[in-house]
TrEMBL record:
The gene is sucD. GO terms for molecular function: nucleotide binding; succinate-CoA ligase (ADP-forming) activity; succinate-CoA ligase (GDP-forming) activity. Residues 4-100 form the CoA-binding domain. It comes from Nonomuraea solani. Substrate binds at Y161. This is Succinate--CoA ligase [ADP-forming] subunit alpha. NCBIfam families: PRK05678.1, sucCoAalpha.
Length: 291
């Protein structure tokens, strides 16, 4: 089993004909994902990488049955691309683009809500979602892990890859990179809920980072709603106080938002928190070996 992305998912790529879109379309196809076309209004009616290019998301869905879109368009055009996907009511849109203005992210997130939340948004500024052995929508390497029964939700792309690799002998049901921007379409809590309900997931790895209160809110949700074991890592334990960090969402206000505060909130509800990514992998390894 998996969450949101399965072997039956049919993927289109908005921006497939650009450099990044081309490269990652090839990688998704090579991984076995069912990429069925691309969207570029200026190149509608042509083919690219052996796939048809459509003028709109709606047309692509009608012609191919696509239910997932991966967005590889420049930041200035991302808002319109996502809103087009929402108008077409595609169930899942994965926004890889980084540098999207927060105001634009807020606008397309609110637009999805106004339209009845028929489209789940993952991202922006994220590596995407992968269900190993089934499908891959985004830029997560397909060959670093195996299919298994661990679920992973992460703010960080590189830490997503590291944990997937370190736990490759156990494997993953689905790994979701939600992105680290201040406004994102899918949260830790959304993924925790889905993994809790997924019969193919036995345990969950959650990766957060300093700034904001997403991890504290996730801790409160875990206490009330998650019975499966959760291990976590919070990036930023060694971040110097008062220094601006790379991720736009990593804003620390006083003691709130620090790695230590998040660690304490999670441990209070029974989540084991590693001090390093490798320690976090070891904690999950102990849980899986004991099953």
């Amino acid at each position: 089993m998996a969450i949101w992305l399965t072997e039956n998912s049919k993927i289109i790529v908005q921006g497939m004909t650009g450099g990044e879109g081309t490269k990652h379309t090839r990688r998704m196809l090579a991984s076995g994902a069912r990429v069925v076309g691309g969207v570029n209004a200026r190149k509608a009616g042509t083919t690219h990488e052996g796939l048809p290019v459509f003028g709109t998301v709606k047309e692509a869905m009608e012609q191919t049955g696509a239910d997932v879109s991966v967005v590889f368009v420049p930041p200035a055009f991302t808002k319109d691309a996502v809103k087009e996907a929402i108008d077409a009511e595609i169930p899942l849109v994965v926004v890889i683009t980084e540098g999207v203005p927060v105001h634009d992210s807020t606008e397309f997130w609110a637009y999805a809500v106004d339209k009845g939340n028929k489209t789940r948004i993952i991202g922006p500024n994220c590596p995407g979602i992968a269900s190993p052995g089934a499908s891959n929508a985004g830029i997560i390497p397909a060959d670093i892990t195996t299919a298994g029964r661990i679920g992973l939700v992460s703010k960080s792309g590189t830490l997503t890859y590291q944990l997937m690799y370190e736990l490759r002998d156990f494997g993953f049901s689905t790994a979701v990179g939600i992105g680290g921007d201040p406004v994102i379409g899918t949260t830790h809590i959304d993924a925790l809920q889905a993994f809790q309900e997924d019969p193919g997931t036995d345990a969950i790895v959650m990766i957060g980072e300093i700034g904001g209160d997403a991890e504290e809110r996730a801790a409160a949700y875990i206490e009330q709603h998650v019975s499966k074991p959760v291990v976590a890592y919070v990036a930023g334990f060694t971040a110097p106080e008062g220094k601006t960090m790379g991720h736009a969402g990593a804003i620390v206000s006083g003691s709130a938002g620090t790695a230590q505060a998040k660690k304490e909130a999670l441990e209070k509800v029974g989540v084991r928190v590693g001090k390093t990514p490798s320690e976090t992998a070891r904690l999950m390894r102990e849980i899986m070996q004991a099953r």
